[in-house]
Design a protein that fits this description.
Structural class: alpha+beta
Number of strands: 13
Radius of gyration: 34 Å
Length: 424
Amino acid sequence: MDSTLDTSEQSLRKRDDQPISRFGRFFRAYGIGISLVISALPLATLFWNLLPVFDGAKPLLTTLASGSSFLVVGSIFAQRHSIGRWFFPGLRLGKQRRVAYQHELEWARWFSVLPVLLWFLALICLTLYFVTLNKAAKRVAFSYAVSSDGHDSAMVRCEQLNKDQPPLRFEQWLTGLSVQRDTYGLWITCWMAAAQKIPGTINAEYHVQFPDEHAVKAILSGTPSTSVPYVYWMGLFFLGAFVSATSSFVLTGLKDYLQTELQLSDQDLILQPAAASQKQIFDVKGAPGLYGLAEFSPDAEDLAPTFEGPFCVEHRFEPLVVEVDFTTGKVTKWKHVDHTGKAPRAIECQLTVNCTLGELHTMFAESARRTVSSKLARDILTQTSDDARPREAQADSLPNTPHHLSSRATSHDAGSATAPSNAA
């Protein structure tokens, strides 16, 4: 009996230790079950009319929005590992220090504002939904409105207007709805205006004035599902509002959840942010007129160096083959292709690098490796000499060599240096 209880307790404890369970507990502790609440709001709208919706389209809109919102919560959490690298990029050098590529830090800054952008997108979609809903209600009223004797519809009276006639204002009656049998008086104003889609033609424009809110509710509840105008646009905006709001809140909670899992405190993130890698320009030895760009970190050997190039010093584009001496396999003429415009543009190049593509690749790889190795060696020597000096001398000394090199690489990328930059 006791062993059975112990087994059940262990299974419950193991189930509680699942990542999704810890995530749910963190959300409750964080005070935001808002993402799940928002996911359930469409279903609540189905029963309690929290938002104005055409009854004919309500089951489809609410079920689709609620199911999609719950699916978004699960999908975002399933991608928590990739999202964690976007929120907290780089490698851990110790308990607190981190280092990352420059483009990773730039992407992390943009990704951190994504929840705010999604919230604004939700507000925009909700506003557009209400605008479309009001337009659809007026169109239904205009389609169902008839004269007091029941013979002339509002649409027919408006189409009989001439271009030079002033706006016509008349009273119509709202009848024919399937659920509401009451009759409501409407005031409709019609006029002729130039069509925007087809120049040279005119269309009848109209404006509907409702007597009270009961007429609007009669339209929302009595319009058949097949007669609801703009139902696809309303569905798109309705779905976008709830999915965007749900994504915004789940990303907000997921960031703090991942921060707790990574054991990163707010003090660590504020006082010791991730350090950026360094960028260094190097010349391709044996290939005059070509250069490359190396990105690496002297503080983190595990951060693999990345290289870009080779690039032409004059045009700052990658050299491409034009002519080859097939007796030796060496390239005799080079060109570039500029993709920055609307269409690719070929550029002739005066490079005099006489080598094969394999030899060019080897020279580039050796120059890149030599640049990174020499840079790391200089940093080690500088750090060793600084550690051997007294503290008083270190306090009054100028910045170390790595800082000078990092400053040069950064200023080159910003366009302040005269050395050629990576245009790829």
